[in-house]
Amino acid sequence: MRTLLTTAVMLAAALANGCASSPQASFYTLSVERPQEPAGAGDGTPSAIPSWAIVMGAVTVPEIDDRPQFVRRVDVNRITLDEFSRWAEPLKSQIRRVIAADLAVQFPGALVSAYPQNVDPALTYVVSIDVESFESAPEAASVSVLWSVKPPKEGKAVSGRSVVSEPTGTQGNDALVAAHSRAMAAVSNAIAAAIRSTRR
């Protein structure tokens, strides 16, 4: 009986030590970067009643990246999933939110929303995003994004592809996520330029 009790105590202690030493997952979000456009390049100034709007339409990401875990590129045909480095919310939701926030900074006179709202289609630009690749490597964060801007009324849509690679500068998840945020800011800048081209 004493032997069984001793064994049970040792087993419980081993389990407790195992739980205590298990690594904890860290959670990350993309962030809004300062626009590259010079001061005053935004269209309009803040007002109580915006005269036009920008809304995010469809946003898609590759299925391989549509998961909580960080997807790390090992070589051209191999990836790894990092179970302890995770996105705090779905990647497509973060991309939608960050691009909308970037555009809101660049166009302070517009009502910018991450989701379609009850806005007047005659005054609203619709931005659609198709992320072709979202690559994470130790030395760089790289994205390839197809985007389109549908102007109000019967305006002709403007489309483009942004291929961006941002060096991490150092090892670690913080540097990698910051590089991805800069890459998405570059995409936002291209979209903002397309919007401006239709408002001249």
TrEMBL record:
InterPro entries: ABC_trans_aux. Residues 1-25 form the signal peptide. Gene3D superfamilies: ABC-type transport auxiliary lipoprotein component. Keywords: Lipoprotein, Signal. The keyword S-adenosyl-L-methionine does not apply. Residues 28-192 form the ABC-type transport auxiliary lipoprotein component domain. The keyword Cell wall biogenesis/degradation does not apply. This is Lipoprotein. It comes from Caballeronia udeis.
